[in-house]
């Protein structure tokens, strides 16, 4: 292509230093019309630009800003309206990846009064839980529409916490599974022993178990010995291994011990 045919074409333009600032293209230009701003953080420039343009068309009173990092926004923060929310787009990355988890922790700590919402390709229950544990105030799967995404951001700004419906279904499934595996144990152990079993499976020491269950440490040791006998284990490591097998295999394994 002959660049002479295209005036004002700058082939040396850099594509990293300039953040994306987008106003609603359907609204008339009114000075000072934006009272707050939303910052999209995504190190993939094309992705953040496309998302910002779509969001700007949905929200007339919110200035949409897209940056590769929070440091880029800080350099020009005085040029923009007050920050309402931060949308961190992690794409296909896992929440528990060190770089992602650290970024969520750092942002949620530094901007404690500003909701941090995670946007991700996945709606895996474990990933959602971890994001909330690290400080996120919401988790939006990329499967929702742009308009729904904006409504969910508004919910977080208002003080709510959003998680996908799939997470609730997964939680219900876990609760149902937990109940179905706990019932067989009730035929093997006493109620107090079941509590000790739960603590053992979490790797807790006798002293901690005694404190949490309001028991003497010597009493906990007696319970542990009785539990070991019932599952035919010779040491603490083996008892935990066999208890985990019980929870995984359910009633069939439990009945074999009776």
From TrEMBL:
<protein>
    <submittedName>
        <fullName>DNA-binding response regulator</fullName>
    </submittedName>
</protein>
<dbReference type="InterPro" id="IPR016032">
    <property type="entry name" value="Sig_transdc_resp-reg_C-effctor"/>
</dbReference>
<dbReference type="GO" id="GO:0003677">
    <property type="term" value="F:DNA binding"/>
</dbReference>
<dbReference type="Pfam" id="PF00196">
    <property type="entry name" value="GerE"/>
</dbReference>
<dbReference type="InterPro" id="IPR051015">
    <property type="entry name" value="EvgA-like"/>
</dbReference>
<dbReference type="GO" id="GO:0006355">
    <property type="term" value="P:regulation of DNA-templated transcription"/>
</dbReference>
<dbReference type="InterPro" id="IPR001789">
    <property type="entry name" value="Sig_transdc_resp-reg_receiver"/>
</dbReference>
<dbReference type="GO" id="GO:0000160">
    <property type="term" value="P:phosphorelay signal transduction system"/>
</dbReference>
<dbReference type="InterPro" id="IPR000792">
    <property type="entry name" value="Tscrpt_reg_LuxR_C"/>
</dbReference>
<dbReference type="InterPro" id="IPR011006">
    <property type="entry name" value="CheY-like_superfamily"/>
</dbReference>
<feature type="domain" description="Response regulatory">
    <location>
        <begin position="37"/>
        <end position="157"/>
    </location>
</feature>
<keyword id="KW-0238">DNA-binding</keyword>
<feature type="domain" description="HTH luxR-type">
    <location>
        <begin position="182"/>
        <end position="247"/>
    </location>
</feature>
């Amino acid at each position: 292509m002959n660049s002479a045919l295209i005036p004002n074409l700058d082939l040396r333009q850099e594509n990293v230093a300039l953040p994306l600032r987008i106003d609603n293209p359907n609204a008339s230009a009114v000075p000072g019309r934006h009272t707050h701003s939303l910052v999209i953080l995504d190190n993939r420039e094309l992705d953040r630009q496309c998302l910002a343009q779509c969001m700007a068309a949905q929200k007339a009173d919110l200035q949409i800003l897209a940056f590769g990092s929070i440091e880029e926004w800080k350099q020009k923060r005085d040029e923009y309206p007050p920050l309402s929310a931060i949308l961190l787009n992690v794409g296909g990355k896992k929440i528990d990846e060190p770089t992602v988890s650290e970024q969520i922790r750092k942002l949620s700590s530094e901007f404690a009064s500003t909701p941090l919402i995670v946007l991700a390709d996945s709606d895996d229950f474990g990933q959602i839980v971890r994001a909330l544990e690290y400080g996120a105030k919401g988790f939006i799967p990329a499967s929702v529409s742009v308009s729904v995404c904006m409504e969910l951001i508004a919910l977080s700004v208002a003080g709510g916490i959003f998680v996908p419906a799939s997470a609730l279904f997964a939680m219900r499934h876990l609760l149902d599974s937990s109940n179905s595996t706990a019932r067989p144990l009730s035929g093997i152990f006493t109620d107090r022993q079941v509590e000790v079993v739960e603590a053992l499976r979490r790797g807790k020491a006798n002293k901690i178990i005694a404190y949490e269950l309001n028991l003497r440490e010597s009493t906990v040791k007696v319970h542990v010995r009785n539990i070991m006998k019932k599952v035919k284990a010779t040491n603490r490591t083996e008892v935990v291994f066999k208890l985990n097998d019980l929870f995984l295999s359910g009633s069939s394994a439990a009945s074999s011990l009776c």
